[in-house]
Task: structure prediction
Amino acid sequence: MPTGVEIERKFLVQRVPDGLDAGEPIDQGYLAIADDGVEVRVRRRGEATVLTVKSGPAMVRVEEEMAIDERRFETLWGLTGGRRVSKTRHLIPLDGALTAELDVYAGALEGLLTAEIEFPSVAASEAFTPPAWLGPEVTGDKRFAAQALALHGRPQDER
Amino acid sequence: MPTGVEIERKFLVQRVPDGLDAGEPIDQGYLAIADDGVEVRVRRRGEATVLTVKSGPAMVRVEEEMAIDERRFETLWGLTGGRRVSKTRHLIPLDGALTAELDVYAGALEGLLTAEIEFPSVAASEAFTPPAWLGPEVTGDKRFAAQALALHGRPQDER
Result:
């Protein structure tokens, strides 16, 4: 398995599970996205504010992250209108030393909840039995990628 | 006159004037440009490498410039294929304490030369008599803006 490959599964969530932590607010806005998939975004996660440039789909993807200060974040955030995702991320421990990242969306995406689980191996991902609070699986469904949610909003026909 | 307003005129140049300085190479590439005009570019000018975010046309334009190191510039430059301008900028002193910035383009824009002159006032810009080496004026012609040249190349019908 090449380094840097992530094995993840993603699910919709219908109801917030009990006993959640306070969560961490995440604001993510796209400054611009090129036709070839290069994207430039700003993100605030807790106190950390960064600007990230990512290449489009390719064998070797480029990702460059730069810390920016709060003043600069606020200025650049103002340029991302109509291309934003705001959510609160909760970490939920699962059996087998796994963790679900539950994202509770706000703003235009209010009502949407997704959960992502990262696995140490393909075998572990295939052996995973989703707990009852996880809804339909949307792994690989591009409509639920951050960029698609920011640009196109919540899918109408969620499945 | 509000601060920050630039009064500039731009001309095509047919022949490189005699006695030029060595000039300074400028490489500029666009990472991504949004539909509303937000653009993100990287630029190397001499030894200086920066990433700049600019808002689209608006009463108050935002421009945020961040210094990046050479390693990061090279990585990001690799994402700007098909959206680049490379040129050498020469400074040419003119009468009346004015300076022409002569840009001699290279690569896909080889053969194109433009000169820009900034004026201290509207009156000075109107009183300006172009020296003989300046060709047709293209002030305000968006086809010769850096972004347009990077994306669309040299205009076919230059005038």
